[in-house]
Design goal:
By secondary structure, the chain is of the alpha+beta class. The protein is built from nine helices and 32 strands. It holds the Pfam family LTD. This is LTD domain-containing protein.
């Protein structure tokens, strides 16, 4: 729980931090493409692409780029990495250093190309004009196929951060200083020649697919001309060494990682508990109508849109089976025992509590809370305050038709198929029209010393989704209790719970049914005109799905 006053004060303090220390940089940039093995067999044409999904630009001036395991860049003169101005043949040249918000930059070996960005663009004529080209001094030559544990490249904001990752790995009489890690780096990337990583082939870059973790080889692919924006470079003869026919997509932002969407749905949110102990007693309930989900194998992010992104997924343990409900809770401030003491009843079903680190303390006066499966989707959504790439979420408020906070109640979705952006789709747990008749008052939980920790005044139904919401009909793809034309739209556009091409036949067969009529002796015949009109679009829809290979089950 965050009061509006506290929220405003924190935001003001955060603005001052940005004013004094500059725009946020750590954990904001992601390396999305690496050309480690160009055809020319020379480091001159190596490059690294970085993507900035944040809402603020990042200036890399003063950054140092180096490889883990190498001897550090010299102390005298001071190490040089990325500079705004350089001297080439007694001429002062400017060097771009800023990665724009939501934009892409390509880092290249500055001295090797004479800091001539035009030469790079001549070699890659399909590179978007808006993409920044940033020359790097002391370029760390990239290894083509590094053996395990692989090659790690760090990007440090200044010399102090860089030096903190340098260690003496030798003996007292024979010191051996090396870059020992990337703990103080603003961001880093690692790759290797095993563990599902694509192998370098003396021509193609490797590109992050935007879906899985950038640390996993399966999330990277070898660039193929014509695929995912990749093109073939043009030979450059301006000076030796020349550029060969490489393949890549420098400067092209990656897809935002729409992995096969999960059907995990947020069904209840406790953002305003009675106990004013930060976010300790907040929780979010989720329902899984799809395949079993193991967060240890498929981690998620749950967050709001305040104070910058968290460093990694924070839902990393627990399992939600098909048709089951789980409650995500703040494990940094509340123990599993405390949550059970507050909400588990003797006669109720066992609640599946799932721990969450870096809990997003939710505001009473309105906030966003979302679930994301992919890092790029999360970073875009968190920075932009929107849910476009979220698996599920809600942007709630305390104005208009939204349920008013009352220091006690959760808010619950009125219908699994309802539009979560509409205030009328949500009710307070204690309201007479709440879809959660199972709502109850939490028990008091005492802190050490006998003081009340949870006041025992909260009202909700964590871990319990009413049967009226869970009952489904074949063909009822928006889960509103009836099979009608709206379900065709859901099936056609791939919304809600996903179905394959056979779902159309299921919808036709059950058109007109509702939960109250599901057991009737006769099934109403589909309205011929409606079906005829909708069927005209079905062949094209199915054909498009076959071409895309996007079968959803």
């Amino acid at each position: 729980m965050r009061t509006d006053v506290l929220r405003s004060a924190c935001r003001g303090a955060f603005a001052l931090l940005i004013f004094f220390f500059g725009a946020e940089t750590r954990a904001q940039l992601i390396v999305t493409e690496i050309m480690q093995d160009p055809h020319s067999a020379d480091a001159t044409w190596e490059w690294v692409e970085v993507y900035n999904p944040g809402s603020t630009a990042v200036d890399l001036a003063g950054y140092l780029v180096d490889r883990v395991g190498d001897a550090p860049i010299g102390v005298t003169p001071a190490p040089v990495g990325i500079r705004t101005a350089v001297i080439v043949d007694d001429e002062i040249l400017s060097n771009t250093t800023v990665v724009p918000a939501g934009g892409v930059a390509v880092l290249y070996d500055g001295p090797a190309l004479g800091y001539d960005a035009g030469r790079f663009r001549n070699a890659w004529p399909s590179m978007p004009a808006a993409a920044a080209l940033i020359g790097v001094e002391s370029w760390p030559t990239l290894t083509n196929q590094p053996a395990a544990p692989g090659l790690s490249i760090g990007f440090w904001a200044d010399e102090a951060a860089y030096r903190s990752d340098v260690a003496d790995l030798g003996e007292p009489a024979d010191p051996d200083y090396r870059v020992a890690g990337t703990g103080a780096a603003a961001f880093e990337v690692s790759y290797r020649a095993d563990g599902f990583w694509p192998l370098a082939n003396n021509a193609a870059s490797i590109a992050y697919d935007g879906v899985g973790s950038p640390a996993e080889g399966a999330s990277w692919t070898l660039s193929v001309a014509g695929g995912a924006g990749a093109t073939r470079s043009t030979a450059s003869f301006l000076s030796e060494p020349i550029n060969g026919p490489d393949r890549g997509s420098p400067g092209v932002a990656p897809a935002h990682g729409q992995a096969p969407r999960s059907s995990l749905q947020i069904t209840e949110v406790m953002y305003d508990p009675a106990s004013r102990t930060s976010g300790e007693w907040e929780w979010v309930e989720v329902y899984n109508p799809g395949d079993p989900l193991d967060f240890s194998e498929e981690p998620y992010w749950i967050d709001d849109d305040d104070f910058g992104p968290i460093p990694g997924p924070n839902v990393t343990a627990g399992v939600v089976g098909t048709g089951e409900v789980a409650v995500l809770y703040n494990t940094d401030d509340a123990t599993l025992g405390q949550m059970r003491a507050a909400w588990q009843t003797d006669d109720g079903p066992e609640i599946n509590f799932i721990p969450v680190r870096n809990w997003p303390e939710l505001a009473n006066g309105g906030d966003l809370v979302g679930l994301w499966r992919t890092p790029l989707g999360y970073l875009d959504g968190q920075a932009g305050g929107e849910l476009q790439y979220a698996t599920s979420g809600v942007i709630y408020d305390n104005t208009g038709d939204w349920p008013r906070p009352n220091d006690a109640d959760s808010i619950a979705i009125a219908d699994l198929g309802a539009d979560r952006s509409l205030p009328t789709s949500w009710t307070r747990a204690s309201d007479t029209n709440s879809p959660a008749p199972a709502s109850y008052v939490a028990a008091e939980v005492l802190a050490p010393g006998g003081l009340a920790d949870n006041l025992g005044m909260d009202v909700g139904s964590p871990g319990v989704v009413p049967e009226t919401l869970l009952q489904t009909l074949p063909g009822d793809y928006n889960n509103d209790g009836r099979v009608d034309a709206a379900d065709f739209t859901v099936w056609r556009d791939g919304l809600g719970v996903f179905y394959d091409e056979g779902g159309y036949a299921t919808w036709v067969e059950n058109y007109g049914e509702s939960l109250g009529e599901a057991n009737a002796a006769t099934v109403p015949e589909p309205a011929t005109a409606v079906l005829a009109n909708l069927a005209l679009a079905t062949a094209a829809v199915a054909a498009g799905r076959r071409r895309a290979g996007n079968h959803r089950a």
